[in-house]
């Protein structure tokens, strides 16, 4: 990363509930926001990173900070269902609207994409084609996506870590669809609203394969209910293979067994979208990011 990139100031917005946050820590040792903090510091060494929990009552920015004072905001995954009218969803959507209004560019994964969608006037629903678990398969770029800097370096079709039970039903007016697959029509999108811009994906470029395995174990009952596994033992056997591949990413036998290639097994390639967003921000600046695609 360049010297200019090392001076970024980032804000990570983690909208997990306290219970989900604790469960994730017990499972893989870190919350979704803590995963983001670690990856951002790896991609842009020297960056200053703060974290906020917008779903929590009374959540506030650090003393003296403003949204417009950050170079970018990153929205993590979350178990929130954005179509439910709860204090947590209301607070999270209100936060994202404030991010748009501040003009600060934003990036989000999984629920982060859904939060930005609802904040800008689109809609979210339960997955119409059922749970997408462990990996999203054959994500395919749209014509616009092939030219968009968010997906630079991705092949025409690729897999990525993903586990979600909700999806974007309708993108807001003016949004651009960048990628989708057979299970989830909106896998990547650009959203512009109220002077701000958001680049996001339904999958998880930020997580490691150990976190995929942890998510499978935490959601084993849902996997069985969805017909993706017949027993807890089935889920554990699959999760153990994913864990093994995390520890030994060059194991071709494991990659073959799981049907994965380097787009997932190579950590550098797996984080393509995050790196592209940060590099685009460094190259173009805030105003330049707003001008992409216009």
Automatic annotation (TrEMBL):
It holds the Pfam family GATase. Residues 66-209 form the Glutamine amidotransferase domain. InterPro entries: ChyE-like, Class_I_gatase-like, GATASE. Coiled coil: none annotated. It comes from the Bacteria. Residues 18-28 have a biased composition (Basic and acidic residues). Residues 1-31 are annotated as: Disordered. SUPFAM superfamilies: Class I glutamine amidotransferase-like. GO terms for cellular component: cytosol. PANTHER family: GLUTAMINE AMIDOTRANSFERASE YLR126C-RELATED (PTHR42695:SF5). This is Glutamine amidotransferase domain-containing protein. It comes from Methylobacterium tardum.
């Amino acid at each position: 990363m360049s010297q200019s990139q090392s001076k970024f100031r980032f804000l990570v917005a983690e909208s997990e509930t306290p219970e989900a946050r604790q469960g994730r820590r017990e499972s893989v040792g870190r919350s979704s926001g803590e995963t983001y903090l670690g990856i951002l510091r790896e991609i842009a060494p020297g960056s200053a990173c703060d974290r906020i929990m917008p779903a929590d009552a009374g959540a506030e920015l650090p003393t003296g900070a403003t949204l417009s004072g950050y170079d970018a905001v990153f929205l993590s995954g979350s178990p929130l269902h954005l179509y439910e009218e709860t204090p947590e969803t209301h607070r999270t959507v209100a936060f994202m609207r404030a991010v748009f209004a501040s003009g600060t560019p934003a990036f989000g994964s999984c629920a982060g994409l859904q939060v930005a969608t609802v904040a800008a006037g689109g809609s979210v629903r339960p997955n119409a084609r059922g749970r997408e678990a462990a990996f999203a398969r054959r994500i395919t770029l749209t014509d616009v996506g092939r030219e968009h800097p968010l997906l630079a370096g991705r092949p025409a079709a690729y897999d990525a870590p993903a586990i979600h039970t909700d999806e974007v039903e309708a993108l807001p007016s003016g949004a651009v669809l960048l990628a989708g697959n057979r299970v989830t029509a909106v896998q990547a999108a650009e959203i512009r609203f109220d002077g701000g811009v958001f680049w996001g994906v339904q999958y998880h470029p930020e997580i490691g394969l150990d976190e995929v395995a942890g998510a499978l174990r935490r959601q084993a009952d849902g996997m069985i209910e969805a017909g993706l596994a017949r027993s807890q033992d089935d889920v554990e056997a699959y999760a153990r293979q994913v864990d093994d591949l995390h520890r030994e990413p060059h194991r071709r036998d494991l990659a073959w067994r799981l049907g994965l290639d380097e787009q997932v097994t190579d950590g550098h390639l797996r984080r393509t979208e995050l790196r592209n967003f940060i590099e685009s921000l460094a190259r173009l600046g805030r105003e330049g990011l707003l001008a992409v695609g216009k």
